[in-house]
User: Fold this.
Amino acid sequence: MARPLTVRPATPEELAQLHRLLEQPLQPWQRRRLEATLLHAAGHTAQDIAALLGVHVNTVYADLRLFHRHRLGGLLKRRSLGAPPRLTSPQRRAICRLAQQSPGELGLPYGRWSLAKFRDYLLRHRIVSAISREHLRRVLKKGDTRSAASFANSGARTPTAAASSTG
Assistant:
């Protein structure tokens, strides 16, 4: 059974503009959206439009709802893909800047960061609201090669390194 579709009909001005837009070079997804809207205005059902355009019926419903909500402007805009970023640029910069400092400089009792300790520090000081160790590792690796390298080699001397350098 077909879903009921409550989409406002296109006005004559919008139909004329749709025809003008279809004469221009468009991305395939833009052309599909415009054609689906025109076919719907001509009285075709969503199932017929899906068969004519070779797409899933849910795609047609999404295109028609987009036209209903945002008019012609919505049909030409690319939809955003993926989840929005969870870290802002200032947060990323703060993470990289802090990674370059040793924990001792910040008054902590250990000489070298681990991902777990660094993550706990970021959460405790509310620099980020949540972050996994793996995501933190990727941020450090991607953010700045010097900060990732200095994070791994924070200059802290381990007991074995101290013993070998004195001998």
User: Anything to note?
Assistant: The chain is about 60% helix and 0% strand. The CA atoms of residues 25 and 31 lie 9 Å apart. The mean pLDDT is 81. The two ends are 84 Å apart (CA to CA).
